[in-house]
Amino acid sequence: DRITYQLGIEVGADLLGVEGEDISFDPARHRISLKRAGREKAENVPLDNENRLIVNWLGKWGKEFKHYSYIDVIKSYASIKEGQKPLIDLNVFKDKICIIGLTAAGLIDIKPIPIESAYPAVGTNAMIISSILTENFITEVPNWVNLLILIIVSILATLVLCDHRLLSGIMITMIFAVSYAVFSAGLFVLSNVVVVTFYPVLAVGLAYILTASYTQILQSIERVHLFKQATRDGLTQLYNIRHFSLLFEAEFSNASTLKFRALSVIMADIDNFKSANDTYGHQAGDLILKDIANIIQSKCRQLDVVGRYGGEEFIIMLSGAKASDAANLAEKIRTAVEARKFR
Prior knowledge:
Blueprint: H1 7-15, E1 23-26, E2 31-34, E3 43-46, H2 70-81, E4 110-113, E5 116-120, H3 121-134, E6 139-140, H4 143-161, H5 166-191, E7 193-194, H6 198-231, E8 239-240, H7 241-251, H8 255-258, E9 263-269, H9 273-280, H10 282-299, E10 305-310, E11 313-319, H11 323-339
Parallel strand pairs: 6-7, 8-10
Antiparallel strand pairs: 1-2, 2-3, 4-5, 9-11, 10-11
């Protein structure tokens, strides 16, 4: 039931004259507050979203803080006592904060940090104390800010990319991703503020994939639609005579194959169609045309090609069918039409 603060925080607070009861931890706001005597406003030590202190690494070991061998310090003191020249001028320690700790390689206190593979804990404490004394902290923005950034970047990327083709979209995606990464890095370098970097960059890539896929699907649907418009009769959805002629010509493109394969064609028209049109109107005539087109298709095989020749005339190409097969099919179609009651 008692909070124990990390050594660097305790020492930093002590150096600022902050007593134990004036140190408070606020987990909801992700911070530690240090209330200094004579100051109305407390100094806040920012924590990350998991209430951990992000250490502001000012440099590699030995670059920012001077360090000396403990043995050399003892030897220097002994040399001064004996009137000899010391290895270290001990005046360097005057009015300084001295932290004593293990620095030998291989010990448990040696840990990797973001800028160096091996760094002693004594240096970590020095960095934390320095941050508290200079109020120079790294601040991580709240999760809701990161989420808002992610949403904004995703929406912007999608809006920009939806109007571009594949190649230009790749270039824009790269520019977008690099620009955000530079912004994120610049924000960190200039103001010690950490915002999420990976997920917005990933979102830009996903936005490109989604918009490119959506564009490809739309183009495919449009191509199919245009092909259908160009090859199908608008009323009956059978092949128009122009496309039927192309398919018919394709059957004769290979003369050697045609020698060994039968080919039949059925021509048909609707009896008394003009009378039905004149009596019931063209809308009724259109319904009759569609119904008969459906009957013809239902009686034909998948490989048969059915077209609207024009007006009330139809044409069917039967690949591999002999004259007797065509006659049988024609009779089936005629019988089905005769049995149909058009209302």
